[in-house]
């Protein structure tokens, strides 16, 4: 039986999405057939309750120098990180000569706010092109992966950090033991390691199955993060639920005994118990709903195609790789996917090979239906594309159930 990457306890597989491509590597048409595939299967640890993938994709494949995702592409996320920066500048970074380190800084969406406040800072990110964008804004970035040797190098050059922060990155890192060892080596006495990631409770409750793809190696819950922190000499001292990405949890950890946990930790643990988030039966039920959603989506797209309706996709997201490849959806059902990221345009979706076109193509002319892959930005997108709805267009969503808006 496979064992847990965290506690080495037994894990049980509850869903197999089959052969999947690396989700954020969008090939040029001439590169079709060169993609790397792996088995995307997820399992539940009976001991520490960590939900995790069974097969790891190498970090160099997932996060190459030209990794295309840019955090600043969403107005909602820009607003979110401005608020996060304001919070930390008033709390953890309010002291003299505070030092801030960010793991997975991407294009500097958060880092730039800290820099603008005059706080000493350093971003760490392996994606060289994204790091160049952050650097062009004046922020300091170390191009590479964060792990214990990196952290010790930073400490030797910069001194201890009062805050290490990461958003939508820690769950990507299979070798998480080295990340916590690095945090322990780099943090100042009383400092905190804070990270935000998609919340397992929301994924299960709303059947957000497309949140499962290569980059999301772990799906965190409060209990599993508590066990994770304890294993590496840390303590979970606070949690805060956030609305971004369909439901995110902010976890605040510190070295064991250095800070007192808030009541929120116990409250969320009790909520997870009530949700039965630690029970195997919950994942069996989730798997059944995933299968129903995929079958329903395929049936809808087939019906619309047979009726002569034109369907395009909206948002060439990482999430879409899981949906398209598991459901077997290709250009015969979706003529193209509209995406505003320049690095993805004129390329095709991994595995399914649906053409990706600029945002302008969505309006020339409007399709009958748009399959919204970027559903976590639905409110922002639908407000932006209100003329599509006014022209008679309809949105298709597949979570929590397949439905049309």
Description of the molecule:
This is Class I SAM-dependent methyltransferase. It comes from Streptomyces sporangiiformans. One of its GO terms (biological process) is antibiotic biosynthetic process. Keywords: Methyltransferase, Transferase. One of its GO terms (molecular function) is methyltransferase activity. It is a single chain. The longest helix is centred in the C-terminal third of the chain and has 27 residues. The radius of gyration is 21 Å and the shape is globular. Helix 5 runs parallel beside helix 6. It has 2 domains: 205 residues, Vaccinia Virus protein VP39 (Rossmann fold, 3-Layer(aba) Sandwich); 124 residues, Rossmann fold (3-Layer(aba) Sandwich), CATH 3.40.50.720. The protein is of the alpha/beta class and 405 residues long. The chain is 34% helix and 23% strand. Helix 6 links the parallel strand 7 and strand 8. The strands form 3 sheets. It has a 7-stranded mixed sheet with strand order 6-5-4-7-8-11-10, with helices on both faces. A 6-stranded mixed sheet has the order 14-13-12-15-16-17.
């Amino acid at each position: 039986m496979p064992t847990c990457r965290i506690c080495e306890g037994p894990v049980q597989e509850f869903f197999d999405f089959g052969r999947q491509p690396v989700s954020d590597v969008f090939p040029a048409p001439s590169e079709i057939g060169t993609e790397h595939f792996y088995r995307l299967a997820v399992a539940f640890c009976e001991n520490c309750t960590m939900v995790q993938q069974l097969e790891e994709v190498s970090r160099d494949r997932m996060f190459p120098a030209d990794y295309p995702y840019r955090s600043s592409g969403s107005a909602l996320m820009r607003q979110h990180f401005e608020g996060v920066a304001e919070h930390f500048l008033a709390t953890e970074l309010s002291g003299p000569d505070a030092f801030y380190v960010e793991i997975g800084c991407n294009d500097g969406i958060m880092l730039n706010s800290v820099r603008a406040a005059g706080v000493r800072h350093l971003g760490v990110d392996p994606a060289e092109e994204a790091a160049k964008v952050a650097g062009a804004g004046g922020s300091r970035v170390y191009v590479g992966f964060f792990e214990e040797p990196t952290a010790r190098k930073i400490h030797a050059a910069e001194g201890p950090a009062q805050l290490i922060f990461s958003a939508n990155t820690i769950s990507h890192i299979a070798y998480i033991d080295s990340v916590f060892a690095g945090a322990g080596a780099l943090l100042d006495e009383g400092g905190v390691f804070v990270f935000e990631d998609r919340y397992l409770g929301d994924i299960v409750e709303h059947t957000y199955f497309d949140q499962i793809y290569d980059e999301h190696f772990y799906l965190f819950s409060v209990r599993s993060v508590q066990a994770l922190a304890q294993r590496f000499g840390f303590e979970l001292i606070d949690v805060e639920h956030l609305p971004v990405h369909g439901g995110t949890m902010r976890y605040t950890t510190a070295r064991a005994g250095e800070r007192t946990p808030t009541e929120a930790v116990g409250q969320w643990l009790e909520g997870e118990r009530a949700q039965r988030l630690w029970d195997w039966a919950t994942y069996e039920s989730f798997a059944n709903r995933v299968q129903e959603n995929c079958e329903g989506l395929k049936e809808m797209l087939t019906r619309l195609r047979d009726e002569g309706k034109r369907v395009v996709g909206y948002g060439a997201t990482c999430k879409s790789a899981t949906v398209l490849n598991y459901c077997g959806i290709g250009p015969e059902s979706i003529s193209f996917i509209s995406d505003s990221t320049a690095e993805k345009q004129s390329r095709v979706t991994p595995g399914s090979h649906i053409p990706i076109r600029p945002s302008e193509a969505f309006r020339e002319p409007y399709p009958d239906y748009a399959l919204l892959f970027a559903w976590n930005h639905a409110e922002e997108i639908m407000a932006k594309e209100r003329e599509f709805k006014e022209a008679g267009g309809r949105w298709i969503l597949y979570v929590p159930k397949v439905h049309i808006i």
